[in-house]
Amino acid sequence: MAGKFEERDVVIVGSGPAGCATALGLRTYAPEFTSKVLVIEALRHPREKVCAGGVNGRAWHLLEDLGVSLDAPFVEVDRGLIRTALGDKWVESPGMTRVLQRDSFDAAVAAHLPENKIELREGVRLERVRRVGSKFDLETSAGTIRASAVVGADGPVGVVRKCLFDAPDKTCLMAMATCPATGHYTHTRSAVMLDFCKAAEGAHGYRWIFPFLNDGEEWVNVGICEWKHRSARELKDDLVGYMRSQDLDVDRAGFRFFPERPFHPRNPFSAPGVLLVGDAAGIDPFFGEGISYGIEYGMLAALSLAAALEHNDFTFQNHTSTLKWSRLGKELMITWMAAGLFYSRWHLPLARVGMSDDYLLYLLGDVLAGRLRPSKKLAAKMLFRVAKGLLKL
Fold first, then answer.
1. Which tens digit of pLDDT belongs to each residue from 233-257?
2. How does pLDDT run across 253-306, given as a tens digit for each residue?
3. Is the pTM of the predicted complex or chain greater than 0.85?
4. How far is residue 273's CA from residue 301's CA, in Å, rounded to a whole number?
5. How many other CB atoms are found less than 10 A from the CB of residue 89?
6. Which of 99, 130, 202, 385 is deepest in the core (most CB within 10 A)?
7. In CATH terms, is domain 6-52+104-168+263-331 a member of 3.40.50.970?
8. Domain extents for the chain?
């Protein structure tokens, strides 16, 4: 009948790594509340997700903490080629990352929801969400759900953020292409390539080449991560030119474009009854890494949900401050400040120091691998070495 709706305590919108980590985190921290959670997903797994597909060691360890084990084909990467306008440098770091197709990865993670008695409804698209007193009506393609709390894990331009937050849209468009590349050095050397050459010309970002397997065949994905508003046409022209410069097969390439939202300390992260996680909250603005951070966003949200369900208080008054003072929040602040320095007029002097300091590159490799986490102590150590290097220029 018209006007009827389903009632749930918590609805998580989106079943990517951040949404799944929120649900699985609640299952880990407060299993008695598992039945009170519903996860809805607009598409059906495996669904397309445009992403470089690099999953660092930290993400794998976090998933293990949540009881997630994965059996998806990946390429193990042990080294990275860092390219700047000043030249190339190899960074060695065993287990730096694993590269895999995101549709397989997301499907494998989401499969753990029903295994842990967490309800997942696929093919249910959220069309609108609005406050009704202290609760929310989620109007979906399968009917209306009334919830006490909503978790927006539906991406950088998700419906939850659009409907419930009056915040400026600070997303930027990224570009990626995939193509066969049998024998490419990223495969033969188990490497990823990060190209910062354009940063010397004022670009706030980099280009990448990552190896992956497509039905057992060696392919690469190549893309542009740049925190600057550009059209899809500009990005494609730029990416085509870059691929040709790298002798990649443009004619057989498939091109995709996707928005991303960088972390900023003024981004909204919560409101009464609402939590934002993953890409909806903001990803690492230096490398654009979102998977491990998305999982941690979800785990912090799970702690807030556990407290809310226990006390029947969904105001989430302390969530934003808790997040900002957490290890996750401090790391994102450090990467935000580092990006502001590196992608600036200081880029070339900083790149010159970095490329000549093997220890700095060793630390960078461990950060990329997830073995070393950005911290005040690490930032101070690296700043000291950078300042020392700048004085020698």
1. 999 999 999 999 999 999 999 999 9
2. 999 999 999 999 999 999 999 999 999 999 999 999 999 999 999 999 999 999
3. yes
4. 12
5. 17
6. 99
7. no
8. 6-52+104-168+263-331
